[in-house]
Amino acid sequence: MDKDSFLDTNVIVYYINYQQESSTEPIYRSYIYIANKKGKFIICHAVIRELYNVMSKFATLHKEVLKKVEDSSYNFEENKNISKRDLPFAQKIYFSYKDYNTKDLKEIFASQRDIFEIGTEQFLKNKVDSQVMPMEQINLELVNKIRDIIPNYADCQILASALQYQKDKGIFLFVTADGEHLDPNGYDFLKEHFEINYPKEKYQFPELKNLYFEE
To answer: What residues contact residue 184 under an 8 Å CB cut-off, 6+ apart?
Structure first.
């Protein structure tokens, strides 16, 4: 019997954004994993919130890139609307579209946002079996325990949701394509950290399936 999958945000974003001719291996693997669905797909409300945050981020990045296309001296680094984490993405978008006229580019960006929004709604409707762990039910103490090891707060909320949902259930897969915070060695370290520091709670971790590192 196939194990159920608790999906991280990046896998879903990669699935929605997949393009056959230009996608990286992690994006391709995420697309294939979701397209060839096995078992049930579970997502938490922290992931749903992150998906809508991605939509907002796209709108911000597109607006800033349009400014730079109109004025090449415009500096992303000086703009507070773009986080340091998103700067490389903004630069990549700019270099891909810097030779377009702004009228055409506005239409292209609007189309891309529409495609992502429609793709998200279709994914939630057609692929997801369970939406679990409302935001108010996330254990903030657990989030902070995870944050001792993993710095990204949204990642900690999602992983905390997975740990809470895992309690008293058969082991499911925690499926991610995060090459930065949830590599297999880091995940093992996190589990050991919990076994050593919080033995009384007997936290049960899902099985990690990280599509970033798979062959």
So the answer is: 208, 210, 213
Identify the pLDDT of residue 79: 77
- DSSP lists the bridge partners of residue 41 as 5
Chain position carrying tokens 């409707």: 125
Which of 170, 155, 198 shows the shortest CA–CA distance to 40? 170
- pLDDT < 70 stretches in the chain: none
User: At 209, which amino acid appears?
Assistant: K
- What's the rounded Cα separation, in Å, for the pair 157 and 9? 12
pTM assigned to the model: 0.92
Q: Identify the DSSP state of 37.
A: -
In degrees and rounded to multiples of 5, residue 172 shows phi and psi of -110, 175
Nearest to 65 by CA among 108, 26, 30: 108
Dmax (CA) for the chain in angstroms is 61
HSE, side-chain direction, 13 A CA sphere, residue 93: 25
Closest CA to 206 of 164, 159, 173: 173
Number of helices followed by number of strands (H, E) in the chain: 8, 5
Question: What number of other Cβ atoms are within 10 A of residue 148's Cβ?
Answer: 12
Phi/psi of residue 207, nearest 5 degrees: -80, 125
pLDDT at 34: 97
Residue 29 CB neighbour total at 10 angstroms: 22
What is the pLDDT at residue 212?
95
Q: Give the pLDDT confidence score for residue 86 in this predicted structure.
A: 87
